[in-house]
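S1.2 Input.
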Amino acid sequence: MANETLKVIVGSLNPVKIAAVKEALALYYPEPQIDCQGMHAPSLVAEQPMTSQETRDGAVNRLRYCQQQQDADFYAAIEGGVDLFEDGPATFAYAVIADRQQMSVGRGANMPLPVSVYQALAQGDELGPLMDKLFNTTNIKQKGGAIGLLTNGLATRQGNYAHALILALVTFAHRELFSNE
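S1.3 Output.
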């Protein structure tokens, strides 16, 4: 793949998501140039997904939309969501990546959320603007995200997304192990 360019379409215009996709792919494909471009892609789910399934569906819907719009070597989409788990409310993200032959789904870590935040989300608020209000920030969802604010900068939104994509890419790195599934 040396001297080649990988064309990648990301189902978002959010610079954090685009950078996370490029970061993960560069680890698996260090030789080619990576031309990673975002595009608006509808999730077809609520603005603030409130379940794991809705979050996963949003990411897959964004990816499928991108596949219908442009030809690329890879397609990727990331959807952040929240859910109420056994141990309390948490936020997480699904990351989906595909080429022309296969699709793989990864998921980022759960980060606990205060019950008051979850209740506001259940009432219709969206996590990014709610965090902006609580922490007096502006457009945090295109920066460090709730994860950056709540971990005091020890973790980042981009890092969590990239990690989910790195995990999803194992099916591409080891196709022979996944080919019979």
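S1.4 Remarks. The chain has one domain: 5-113+155-178.
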